[in-house]
Amino acid sequence: MTTVLIVDDQPLQRYGFRMLLESQPDTAVVGEAGHGAEAVRLTAALRPDVVLMDIRMPGMDGIEATRLIVAAGGRSRVLVLTTFDLDEYAHAALRAGASGFLLKDARPEELLAGIRAVAEGDAVVAPAVTRRLLDAYAHRLPGPPGAADRDPRLAALTDREREILLAVGRGWTNGEIAQRLVLSESTVKTHVGRVLAKIGARDRVQAVIFAYDMGLTRPNPPA
């Protein structure tokens, strides 16, 4: 059973999420919060598997709430919800330690699959959405000149592992990486795991952000 805390300042939005989640035999809603401070308090008290986190809320927003929840070192993982217009705050939330993000107009089955993936320790990285999100505003957050050359985490990577990191940063799935690099998916999965360990990333989402921060990959120019 996957336990979920719903965080959103809109009561009707919370109600919709609750109805969807409670229709599933393998998920249970353990609480609701209308703002970030309440989310932090309830996460500590209820220890849900997944915190479904809105970003824009009055008072403490979802970014600061995510940062505090992750910093507490508990078992709960945060899945951020962002708006259809690719809310730039999602990037900050991911850097704060969120395990992924979904658009608020995601189909019900996508939301349920995302929650289950995060609960199992994976990250929610829909490659097309990742590319759209980062392409939309990552050009405003360029990595510092020479960052990649100075960072000891990158120096620890083999040439193949750096190649894998670059592919992850581009939003490629394991299947896409395997096809383009002529590797088996199991080999790719092993490489990805080693890359995450060496760069200290919690999951693939953090690896994507790391690749952009290091300047290893750049978004497409804005239209």
Describe this structure in words.
The protein is α/β, with parallel strands linked by helices. The protein folds into two domains: 2-124, Response regulator (Rossmann fold, 3-Layer(aba) Sandwich); 143-213, Arc Repressor Mutant, subunit A. 52% of the residues lie in helices and 12% in strands. It contains twelve helices and five strands. Strands 2-1-3-4-5 form a five-stranded parallel sheet, sandwiched between helices. Helix 1 links the parallel strand 1 and strand 2 (27-33). Helix 2 packs parallel to helix 3 and helix 9 (159-169) crosses helix 12 (204-213). It starts with a strand and ends in a 10-residue tail after the last helix. The mean pLDDT is 83.
How would the blueprint of this fold be written?
Elements lengths: L1 E6 L3 H12 L4 E7 L2 H11 L3 E5 L7 H10 L5 E6 L6 H7 L5 E3 L4 H12 L7 H11 L9 H4 L1 H4 L3 H11 L4 H8 L3 H15 L4 H10 L10
Parallel strand pairs: 1-2, 1-3, 3-4, 4-5
Helix pairs in contact: 2-3, 3-4, 9-11, 9-12, 10-11
Using brief descriptors, characterize the structure shown:
223 residues, alpha/beta, Rossmann fold, Arc Repressor Mutant, subunit A, 2 domains, five-stranded parallel sheet, 12 helices, 5 strands, globular
